[in-house]
Amino acid sequence: MKNPRMSPPRARRLLWLALILFLPVPYWAFGSGHVPVAWLLQLALMGIALLVTEGAMGPGGVIALLFCVETLLWLVVLRMVATRVVARVSRGAGEARARALVLAASFALMIAALTPIYATPLVNDGAAVRWTSLLP
Amino acid sequence: MNLSVTDDKKQPRAPARGFALALGLTLTVLTSHAAATTPAAPPFERTEQRPACADHDPLRQPFVGDLHVHTGLSLDAATQGTRSRPRDAYRFARGEEIGLQPWTPEGKALRHARIDRPLDFAAVTDHSEFLGELRTCTTEGLPGYKWPACVLFRRWPALAFFVLNSPVSDRESPQRSKFCGDEGRDCKLAAAAPWGEIRDAAEEAYDRSAACTFTSFIGYEWTAAPLGRNLHRNVIFRGSSVPDLPVSALDVGPVRDLWSGLDRVCRKEQGCEWLAIPHNSNLSSGLLFLPEQDDGEAFTEAYVQARARAEPLVEVTQHKGDSECRLGVGTEDEACTFEQLPYDNFSAKFSSFDAGTGKNEPTSFVRNALHQGLALEKKFGTNPFRFGLIGSTDTHLGTPGLVQERGHQGHGGAGTPNSVRMPIGLPDDVEFSPGGLAVLWAEENSRDALFAAMRRREAYSTSGPRMVVRFFGGFDLPTDICQRSDLVATGYARGVPMGGVLQAPPSPAPGEAPRFVVSALRDAGTTAVPGAPLERIQIIKGWLEGDTLREEVVDLVDAPGAQLDTGSCTVSGGGATALCQVWTDPDFDPAVKAVYYARVLEVPTCRWTTFLCNDAGVRCDEPATIGEGFAECCDDAFPRSIQERALTSPIWLDPRGKM
Fold it and tell me: Is residue B309 part of a domain?
């Protein structure tokens, strides 16, 4: 990966971002489902906003706590996944191929996100939805 | 067995409109017995200025209604996509079709509903809590509209429900959302508009003409549920004079504060009267009928008197299960398996961390409370649990009286919302049901007459079918009363009706004992869907033996032999159109307080789930036929058939004989 536009750190960040945005991960808070971490993040931010405006003792605190913990957990896990995948692919397939693979994987995730692979009781009564349906 | 249909020679009087199609000739047997010259109990007090009802019967008629109805003004209904408003609910009750969620982006309803027969009366009882919050979050420009809690409501309503609704679970100090301003001022101001809409809709729907086709009551639901244990009450106002705002669970603490709060803002001398109707004791984890106050304080004389005055009725059956009794919880009555929930409080339903305490305390059930009331009366001189029984739906779709098992579409609320997509599989949570109805015996279909019926507890509950049930008790009832054409007049003249208190003679003659008559007519149904025959009449007696509560279930009369084919949901053979029986209590002791109520059972019929599962072609022995969302069709925890029923208000036997 000599290409400065796709150095290993950049490839890692790109894959991490793609995983955050599109990979459905399980969660448990006010029901359960599988959604992108980015979606959990916006709920965590909403929980923080509720916590600030409504007070820590209310459900805003619970929402903030549950979604923040799960979001942080998944951010760390996905970061580790991205790091290991890029390192392994770079070692095994060479940097040029690794760059292509990261791009392909990110693209594949993006394409998959156009199909109904996500589900949460908070959206569409829990039925499987596309990524776009999760947008605010 | 005494199977009799009284040969009434009188011309049938026109029954209430909602009953006319359904019952036809059979209704007249119980509503227009001959010799209708004997006045019944004292006439009700007239507080309204309006034309008299053309259809007035001093021997009273059965009016069918629903006193538990939510519309899109209730937070939980709104977060489920319910758009019907109070006016829609009353239109529905009177027979018009309304649209149900899900809705298209263009605002077109994808589902519709129409009641099979209009109701005679109804009350929209939206939750008083959060009327203002909901208004604030949906009305741009109001203070608080842009607050995160309101943004959450508009973006993720299902999550917002938990956030906004959480204060009702707080026993100590329920707090409104901060966006409501100091002491909730902004939300209280905002609540004026929806409360006004509720009042206006009831006023408009009330038929004040001499035709008296429909009566609407202004009402609301008080929604306290500390730690998810249900203490809800529906508050019903007698007339158009009502408080400026409802007294909500966010404004007051324990239920005694609801009563005193209402007394402060709704004074009889100003034309305002109210009563409260508890419901879903089955979801209270035993709290609703605990022999102590809901905040742990001991009962006092003042408390039991206030409760007896405030709560003359209990809603014993509805969409979220039946609260009469539960097999194994203080009773071995085998009929106490009807529409039982697998959990005993709201938290248990929604939280996997509290997956049903499963304790099902006896104080969760109405029968136990009726019996317990005898002991409390002995202690305090007043029975706080001297209540009559009604049913209702608790619909959260604005569909009062939508109780048909066949084609049930769910009722929202705590069940499946179907808010944004058409149901896949069963349209509601499998443990729920279509709910029940309230029947009031009144002289005419007017607010004054119906409210008086509620006050004197001359009411009964049904689990949906519109069977007609009379229940009288007396020491002087003739043994051949079932064969007499003046059953009703005699019942009133020589006894007391359901809801009444029967005075035991201080020194009864040998062999003298209270005698009861129960007369029931099947629901005629409609041409498309006829009602089911009756199978059995029972009397449930409770009494105090020393300090021990006893119960006995007596089969009075039955018409066995009906066969239900759950594959086609057809019933063949057996059953009766009418049942009537007299019963004299062989164990009467004039020194003992007792309570009696009647239960009328239909022959077994298909549960709502069975209709839908059959329609979907589900055959449990062929897994390939079990489509998405229909797995519960084959869950043995839920029965294929049910026995619909009516429960009358009790008659209390009082050695002291006070009314």
Answer: yes
Tell me the percentage of chain A whose pLDDT exceeds 90: 55
Residues of B numbered 145-184 whose beta carbons fall under 8 angstroms of chain A's beta carbons: which are they?
147-149, 151-152, 155-156, 158-159, 162-163, 166, 175, 177-179
Tell me if B181 is assigned to some domain. Answer: yes
Nearest Cα of chain A lies from the Cα of B234 at a distance, in angstroms, of: 27
Residue B72 has a pLDDT of 97
Instruction: Give the structural domain span for B224.
Output: 64-454
Residue type, B475: F
Q: Which two tokens stand for residue B96?
A: 């018009």
B187 is a domain residue: yes
B618, part of any domain: no
* pLDDT (tens digit per residue) in B430-489: 999 999 999 999 999 999 999 999 999 999 999 999 999 999 999 999 999 999 999 999
Q: How many domains does chain B have?
A: 1
ipTM of predicted complex: 0.85
Residue A3: its pLDDT value, please?
Answer: 55
Please give the structure tokens belonging to residue B273: 């009267």
Tell me what pLDDT residue B659 has.
41
Residues of chain B with C-beta less than 8 angstroms from the C-beta of A67: none
Number of domains in chain A: 1
> Percent helix, strand and coil across chain B, each rounded to 5?
25, 25, 50
The secondary element (H helix, E strand) that includes residue B20 is helix B17-31
Find which of B152, B173, B175, B349 to mutate to test the A interface (most A CBs within 10 Å of its CB): B152
A2 pLDDT exceeds 90?
Answer: no
Whether residue B379 is predicted with pLDDT greater than 60 in this model: the reply is yes
Among B543, B586, B585, CA closest to B377: B543
